[in-house]
């Protein structure tokens, strides 16, 4: 969907999901991705007002990061890795790089 800021994109998508749930499409069949946690939380609150709570909880509302993490945890065994991994944030990555530089003697 392409539209400018403030044109109602989020509202349209959230209301469309609620309408499909009301018309019998199972909530777990829906995925709603946001760039930021704030957007995800707002969509969850809106959906809670539009459909039954037990249905809104079954819809995947998440950030792109959380969706990718979920897919990795589910399917990473195919690549030969365990699902008990941690995703490093910027601070963790900097610490690992500093330690590697020290250990390499640079």
Walk me through the topology.
Elements: H1 9-22, E1 31-34, H2 37-50, H3 53-56, E2 60-63, H4 64-75, H5 90-104
Parallel strand pairs: 1-2
Helix pairs in contact: 1-2
Task: Walk me through this protein's architecture.
- The chain is mainly alpha-helical and 106 residues long.
- It contains five helices and two strands, in the order αβααβαα.
- A two-stranded parallel ribbon has the order 1-2.
- Helix 1 crosses helix 2.
- The longest helix is centred in the last third of the chain and has 15 residues, at 90-104.
- The model has no long low-confidence stretch (mean pLDDT 90).
Question: Main beta sheet: strand number and arrangement?
Answer: 2 strands, parallel
User: How many angstroms does the end-to-end distance come to?
Assistant: 49 Å
Helix content: 55-70%
Average pLDDT rating:
90
Describe the global form. Answer: elongated
**Major sheet: order of its strands?**
1-2
How many whole angstroms does the radius of gyration measure? Answer: 19 Å
| DSSP summary, beta strand count | 2
Give, in order, the helices and strands. Answer: HEHHEHH
What oligomeric assembly is this protein in? single chain
Low-confidence stretches: none
Strand content: 5-15%
Structure classification:
mainly alpha
Number of separate helices: 5
């Amino acid at each position: 969907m392409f539209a400018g800021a403030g044109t109602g994109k989020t509202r349209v998508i959230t209301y469309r999901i609620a309408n499909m749930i009301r018309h019998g499409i199972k909530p777990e069949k829906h995925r709603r991705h946001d760039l930021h946690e704030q957007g995800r939380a707002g969509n969850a609150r809106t959906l809670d007002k539009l459909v039954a709570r037990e249905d809104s909880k079954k819809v995947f509302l998440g950030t792109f990061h959380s969706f990718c993490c979920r897919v990795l945890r589910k399917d990473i065994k195919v690549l030969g890795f365990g699902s008990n991994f941690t995703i490093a944030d910027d601070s963790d990555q900097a610490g690992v790089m500093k330690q590697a530089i020290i250990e390499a003697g640079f």
